[in-house]
Design brief:
Elements (H helix, E strand, L loop, with lengths): L2 H7 L9 E13 L5 E13 L3 E5 L6 H8 L7 E6 L8 E2 L5 H8 L2 E4 L11 H12 L4 H14 L15 H12 L6 E5 L7 H18 L2 E6 L2 H7 L2 E6 L2 E7 H9 L8 H11 L14 H6 L4
Parallel strand pairs: 3-8, 3-9, 6-7, 7-8
Antiparallel strand pairs: 1-2, 1-4, 4-5, 9-10
Helix pairs in contact: 4-5, 4-6, 5-6, 9-10
Length: 303
């Protein structure tokens, strides 16, 4: 299938005013140790619809973390567009090539839960949550304290407000990080592997919290993960990446249908590849004779 029809096929069908982030033909390359350019994102296009939870998934080195860093402006893209249209914007703005001042204004409309929680070890939980308010708002300290209390209540962390990160469990760090991510009442929440390092029960509790906050705060959520139990629990729509390209974008039901089909009924290699990933099968297109592809070797630190 030609690239252009594939890109048209994966776009959301929502009206343009309902698309809060529009990614078009994004290309991102890195340079390897031999000085050779290596493409990590290869023409990625996807629409993120206001109010949905979109899960970006794929194996190690597929480019999903690189895509996340391009979405938040942490990495500049080589080619393409990443356009935001938040509620106060009359028209979409492209963050590609945007200067730091303008980019920071856009960043105030989203929050990020990093894989480790990324709390400052020298600050208490309450001080970590208060930090975005102190840095990016002009409200009184008394108001900040009220907001911090509310945000910690939302994630069931109020009893731990005066603890240091070193005194918290992995799940508690994720909850505290989520409270900080929501401190400025963002329209968009980005999650980087929210289930990483958690046991199944704690992971499910974090999933429940994410879904609860999405409903209560009316936010758009973009979740990067390779944990399929979590992905199928929280997603409205899903995006599957492989080798820096989009294989498919669809509803959770679309991917459930593909996952449950007999593998022998699938004739397209991309479908067999996705089927293997969704089922965690040890044999299939994702697995070569050596167990690790050259693409994964090159991307282990980037994807």
């Amino acid at each position: 299938m030609a690239d252009e029809p594939r890109n048209r096929r994966i776009m959301a069908t929502a009206p343009p005013e309902d698309v809060i982030i529009s990614v078009r033909d994004v290309v991102k390359s890195f340079t390897n140790s031999d000085g050779e350019s290596f493409r990590v994102l290869d023409g990625v296009s996807v629409d993120i619809v206001r109010g949905e939870t979109l899960v970006v998934m794929g194996g190690s080195g597929c480019g999903k973390s690189t895509l996340l860093n391009c979405l938040i402006g942490e990495l500049p893209i080589d080619r393409g567009h990443v356009r935001y249209r938040t509620k106060e914007m009359k028209h979409a703005v492209d963050i590609a090539g945007m200067d730091d001042r303008a980019l920071n204004a856009v960043r105030k409309r989203f929050g990020i839960l990093f894989q480790s929680g990324a709390l400052f070890n020298s600050l208490t939980v309450a001080e970590n949550v208060a930090l975005p308010l102190r840095e990016h708002s002009y409200v009184d300290a008394s108001v900040i304290d009220i907001v911090v209390t509310l945000k910690l209540q939302q994630v069931k962390m109020l009893p731990h407000r005066d603890k240091l990160p070193s005194q918290l469990s992995g799940g508690q760090k994720k909850r505290a990080g989520l409270a900080r991510a929501t401190a400025l009442d963002p329209e968009i929440l980005f999650y980087d592997e929210p289930s990483a390092g958690l046991d199944p029960v704690t992971s499910a509790a974090i999933d429940d919290l994410m879904m609860d906050l999405s409903k209560k705060l009316h936010v758009t959520s973009v979740v990067v993960t390779h944990e399929m139990d979590s992905a199928f629990r929280i997603a409205d729509r899903m995006v599957m990446l492989d080798k820096g390209r989009v294989l498919r974008t669809g509803t959770r039901a679309d991917f459930e249908s593909l996952r449950d089909k007999p593998v022998e009924s699938l004739t397209h290699e991309d479908d067999r590849l996705m089927h293997q990933f969704l089922n965690g099968a040890t044999s299939g297109p994702l697995t070569d004779a050596e167990g690790t592809s050259e693409f994964e070797n090159q991307l282990m630190i980037h994807g």
